[in-house]
Amino acid sequence: MPSFRSFLLVSLFLARLSALVIAEPSYLERERDKEALADLEAFQRLLDQVDPPALHAALHKHSPKKFEHGIFKEDRTAVEAVHREDASLATKIASLAKRQNPGNGS
Questions:
Q1: Residue-wise DSSP of 17-71
Q2: Entry pTM
Q3: What is the Cα–Cα distance from 47 to 22, expressed in whole angstroms?
């Protein structure tokens, strides 16, 4: 018959093991984090291709009240803030600005 000490040791071991399993991010969470990082890197590359005046115009066209002068130090900072809230919307704004770049043929 198992002793109380054996029971206690097994209980502590199982508690420790379950704490490790709970604390370890799941495979899906790690993959989602990788995708988010890749999306952010792609978004930053898109912003690198955008002419600042075109980004400024796209932000004001999208939401003139939200993007008033003086709220954000730079327009890039503003669209990065939008990206943190809504990545899809920020990408659309940056893509619109990119299409407005001179020499883009559009």
A1: HHHHHHHSPPHHHHHHHHHHHHHHHHHHHHHHTS-HHHHHHHHHHH-TTTT-TTS
A2: 0.59
A3: 38
- The residue length of the chain stands at 106
> Average pLDDT in the 20-33 region?
64
**Given pLDDT bands bounded at 50, 70 and 90, which one contains residue 21?**
low
Residue type for position 55 = L
Residues 33-56: pLDDT tens digits?
566 656 888 889 889 999 999 998
Q: CA-CA distance, 42 to 25, in Å (whole number)?
A: 24
Distance in angstroms (rounded) separating the CA atoms of residues 59 and 76: 10
User: What is the Cα Rg of the chain in Å?
Assistant: 24
